[in-house]
Amino acid sequence: MEAVPRMPMIWLDLKEAGEFAFNAAVKKFVLKNYGENPENYNEELRKLELLRQGAVNVPRDFEGCSTLRKYFGQLHFLQSRIPMGAEQEAAVPIAWTEIFSGKTVTHEDIKYEQACVLYNLGALHSMLGAMDKRVSEEGMKVSCTHFQCAAGAFTYLRDHFPHSYSVDMSHQILNLNINLML
């Protein structure tokens, strides 16, 4: 491995999150459709908000990948119980910053939040792959695994979120990201 030059690797930046004030919409939906006291869910909503803060300010390490995966799963679970998709009853504005222009893009669709979290998962894996020490066989394997995970996240985003929410998540850019990672 000593004779192999250590080339600098490309990684992708993380998207920056804006507002996603879901508490009021969830409580209103619970009261109206389930007839339950929405205050009974304060603790769960607080935990979800803390998880979001952890995902938005994700540490640049493998633990950060776990946080993003966990938040992505919780969003999926939330959507299965509370209709927060585009033009659904409990939809609220969700804002994230577009990577290339720096503009804030807002959609009233929980799938936009999921897509941005998935993008950040791919970007974080690309960072970890580029930052890993590639001076040993084991280091090369770990780095390659991170790049493959990044490509997997971008592939899932491209294939399961057909709506192009912003330029950085367009079909063409996601294909470019996938090819860069592989």
Task: Please tag this protein with its features.
182 residues, mainly alpha, two-stranded antiparallel ribbon, 6 helices, 2 strands, elongated
Could you explain how this protein is built, in words?
With 182 residues, this protein is mostly helical. It has six helices and two strands, in the order H-H-H-E-E-H-H-H. Strands 1-2 form a two-stranded antiparallel sheet. Strand 1 and strand 2 form a beta hairpin. Helix 3 runs antiparallel to helix 4, helix 4 packs antiparallel against helix 5 and helix 5 packs antiparallel against helix 6. The protein is elongated and about 60 Å long.
How would you sum up this structure in a few lines?
By secondary structure, the chain is mainly α.
Secondary structure elements and pairings:
Elements: H1 23-34, H2 42-56, H3 62-81, E1 94-97, E2 104-107, H4 110-131, H5 137-160, H6 171-181
Termini separation (Å)? 21 Å
* Secondary structure: helix percent: 55-70%
Shape: elongated
Unreliable stretches, pLDDT < 50, 5 or more residues? none
- Strand count: 2
Largest sheet strand order? 1-2
Query: How is the main sheet built?
Result: 2 strands, antiparallel
What is the string of SSEs from the N terminus onward? HHHEEHHH
Rg over CA atoms, rounded to whole Å, is 18 Å
Overall pLDDT confidence: 92
Alpha plus pi helix count: 6
- Structural class, from secondary structure content? mainly alpha
Name the beta content range. Answer: under 5%
